[in-house]
Amino acid sequence: MKVAIVLFDVNLKEFDLSDSYIITCDRGTLNAINSGIKPDLAIGDFDSIDKAEFELVRKNSKALIQLNPIKDKTDVEEAFIKALEMTEDITIYGGIQGKRIEHFLSIISLFNKDMKLRIVDNNSLIFKIDNKFQFKKEDYSKYKFVSFFLDKEGDITLDGFYYDLSNKHIDKSYSSLLVSNRMVKDNLIIDINVPTLVIMSKLDNKNNLE
To answer: Which is more confident, 172 or 68?
Structure first.
């Protein structure tokens, strides 16, 4: 079973969610409904929508959980907990861009709970690996840049990239050596000995920082 957690800041028309159980968070419910998707579960405190919008949410959601706005967890974390009760195959759609950087960081922290989590929007894909990862360039052909962020110091080998590395020891989580790399060969290998966040991004013609 796959679970899709839908937020508000993503164009869902680029994705096929037909085989997923749909959980929507707060204003993400309106995003789903406006995209022709009827959520299996809408969850949130819904403090970002008005009464008319909430009525639309209530009528178009198969199930609804309204949270107290005074709570210990974010709406996304509550949705993630519900998703984990069903599966480990979870994708969060949205939450990468936007003006609330603290919310993005809180979503990133969910990787501490589930290594199989994926976060995706219309520009980026984020996932985590903890050992050797082999893949084909064609499977990620829409992405131009790939960066790596280690949980702690460790060793990494990159094969098939513009900047290859051979068993390079990285002594901190962030290293300029691991930012804005590119996939070159058809078959690629990432070999690491510590959990590592992988971030793939498309080309941004307006703000292309390398």
So the answer is: 68
Q: Tell me what the mean pLDDT of segment 90-110 comes to.
A: 88
C-alpha–C-alpha distance, residues 142 and 137, integer Å: 9
2-122 CATH, one of 2.60.40.1120, 3.40.50.300, 3.40.50.2000, 3.40.50.10240? 3.40.50.10240
CATH 3.40.50.10240 describes domain 127-201: yes
Tokens 């082999």 locate to 134
Q: What percent of the chain has pLDDT over 70?
A: 95
DSSP symbols for 102-167 = HHHHHHHGGGGT-TT-EEE-SSEEEEEESS-EEEEGGGGTT--EEEEEESSSEEEEEESBSS-EEE
